[in-house]
Amino acid sequence: MAFVQAILAAYQRYGVDPSGALQKAQIAPELLTIAQARITAWQMEQISGAAMQELDDEALGWFSRRLPWGSYGMLARASISAPSLDIALMRWCRHHGLIADDIALTLEVSGTVASICIAERRALGALREFCLVSVLRNIHGLACWLVDSRIPVQHAQFPFAAPPHAEAYGVLFSGPTTFGAAHASIQFDTRYLALPLRRDEHALQQMLQRALPLTVLQYRRDRLLVQRVRQALTTHPEKTHSAEDLAALLHVSPRTLHRQLKEEGAALQTLKDEVRQARALELLLRTTRPIKQVAQAAGFQNEKSFMRAFKGWTGTSPAEFRRSQAGLKGIQNF
């Protein structure tokens, strides 16, 4: 309800009666006095859309000047011709500064982590939280739409103390959220930046007719999920024994993990077998580690299950496979 109150503050700033917007969103006036009250994504979409059009301000009073209806559509149109997501996001950040210089958006890359950061150039006042959260949700939602993929947020941070409704941030951002940071930002895997854009002008026109769901609903499909699963299985074999463990590591539910892999034409067990087999073969060929250690490093909970799986892959036991390759050079202890 805190963000509804922020929208009502924008109505007050412009001296406009919000009753029509509340009625359209089916938000009962008595709910406004209950701090713990919750609304649905549909209700948030309805009241936000009504407010933006009635107030002719897509920023809903965040900035020192209005962003007339259609401003964010203009930014999207300027970004859609980019060849890849990184270029599109850099354009969005640069152009956003041209229409609202109260904040500065930047795309930063450090190793495997990409960050969209906000620098505050003017005091944002009472709507600061609503502004910072909404701007990051807007650009994240657009990024997902541009590449037609869910982009999991690995971490979100904000430069204010945890609000009373801090638990809502678990819904707004998929990864953990930190409060009291130096600035507002979200972080995600840099590999998404290389994805090509999958939208054209016709798709943009359709999206702009109902763009707000991009900011209030999580995008379902993840085009890099298979790569992320492989990486997790390779990097954290001891933490990915079960689908539940792997899903927790990737910040999705086990059901979502299985469903999205199926949509990508993959299966978790097949990916696990491929990664484990490659790791086991590498260790058997290049090291003299005991079979038990190879099994553990490959992601198996015990030597017996490893030997059974290995024989299914190669038709022989790990020890027999190693002996048959004993003539190979380059065996070393790690």
Could you explain how this protein is built, in words?
The chain is an alpha+beta fold and 334 residues long. The protein has 4 domains: 1-55; 59-216, no CATH class; 225-268; 273-324, Arc Repressor Mutant, subunit A. Helix content is 50%, strand content 9%. It is built from 16 helices and 5 strands. The chain has helices spanning 2-14, 19-24, 41-55, 71-79, 85-99, 128-147, 169-172, 201-208, 213-216, 225-235, 243-249, 254-263, 268-286, 291-297, 303-314, 318-324, and strands at residues 103-110, 113-120, 155-158, 177-179, 184-189. The chain has a 5-stranded mixed β-sheet with strand order 1-2-5-3-4. Strand 3 (155-158), helix 7 and strand 4 form a beta-alpha-beta unit. The longest helix is centred in the middle third of the chain and has 20 residues, at 128-147. The radius of gyration is 25 Å and the shape is elongated. It starts with a helix and ends in a 10-residue tail after the last helix. The model has no long low-confidence stretch (mean pLDDT 87).
As an assembly, this protein is single chain
Strand content: 5-15%
Overall, the morphology is elongated
**Structural class, please?**
alpha+beta
Strand order of the largest sheet: 1-2-5-3-4
Short précis:
By secondary structure, the protein is an alpha+beta fold. It has helices spanning 2-14, 19-24, 41-55, 71-79, 85-99, 128-147, 169-172, 201-208, 213-216, 225-235, 243-249, 254-263, 268-286, 291-297, 303-314, 318-324; strands at 103-110, 113-120, 155-158, 177-179, 184-189.
